[in-house]
Design a protein that fits this description.
Blueprint lengths: L5 H18 L4 H10 L16 H16 E4 L46 H7 L2 H8 L10 E4 L9 H20 L4 H10 L4 H12 L5 H6 L18 H7 L1 H14 L11 H7 L5 H22 L7 H31 L21 E5 L4 E5 L1
Antiparallel strand pairs: 1-2, 3-4
This protein binds zinc ion.
Length: 379
Amino acid sequence: MGFRDLRNFNLSMLGKQGWRLQTNQDSLCARVLKGRYYHDGDFLTSTRRKHASQTWKAILAGREVLAQGLIKRVGDGTLTNIWDDRWIPNHFDARPLTPQDGHDVVLVSDLLDPDGRWDGAKIRQSFIPVDAEAILHIPPRPQVTDFWAWEPEKHGFYSVKSAYKMLDRRRIREEVVNTASVSEHDVWKKIWKLKVPPKVCTFWWRVIQEFLPTRQILHKRHIEPVPNCEVCGAQEETIRHVLCECTAARAFWAYAKSLSGVKLLELHPVSWAYDLVDGKIVSGENQTMILSGMYSLWLQRNKWKHGEQTRPTSQAVRWAIDLAYDLWNMSAMVDGAETSSVKGGHTQRWECPPEGWLKCNADGAFYEDQWQGATGAVL
Ligand SMILES: [Zn+2]
């Protein structure tokens, strides 16, 4: 592969020095440096001294690269801090999204039962569902102690090539973020505040990270021989293509517009995925509808690709509209209940029917069906 960016290439090389120091702490070099720069701590947390040598400064620059891809592989869990260490593979920053406040679990071993298996009940109780599922997917290895690995490589050992690729992806993402109307730091918070189901939040995180196996992405990774779209024959099946531009997506959005009036706006070619969560170009119920609709399009695309029966466009659109409607009604009810409990000092409660009567509780939605030109109530 070509190393076009010399600075990132140098950093990747320096990262290798850091990897050696971290994983081979008994080597002569590691012992000398420890004695001089971090005798009372460890390499990853040692601070930069004022009169440090150029070599040490360079190693610290490599350590920054290392820290972005270094991950703890969980064994007995006794050496891994739940909140500080990177330890959950393929998961955001490899740390839980759940805030630490109020949790008494500290080490990963606190989440294991006496046999070294995950304590599912405790994990589901301590973490939000997206964290809990990711943790429960980590295979337990109670026989070994926790050890360091390099996440970008399957074999777990540092390689200059994978570090360079990682830095390159970061550079591209930074360029995108600079174009976008929302900073990367804020985008995660915004995603988790969206009024969409957690699955759609996770999906959107994958869209932003480009962690979806479209043909263009697989082609870039030398997995697919050609990057074209199999549905419409377009030259490249990018994520944006699947969700906005493909014939299937166009039919979806045209139908959605006729049914609900929600229109997919012109989106920025680079920062579109960030802009859609920002709340400036689209917000509220329309934002829920668009993001859920895109999730639905992605599911449809996968079904089609695997030869499974797909839902008709009309059904897929209705699902997204109904979901948006329900979520917004639910949140309005919650807000309303909170307001009434604050202002009126009471909330409405279920009451027993008079003797001799049966009470049937039901929920319902009422909407204007523009497409069929009829109005209907759905129970
Ligand atoms: Zn297409």
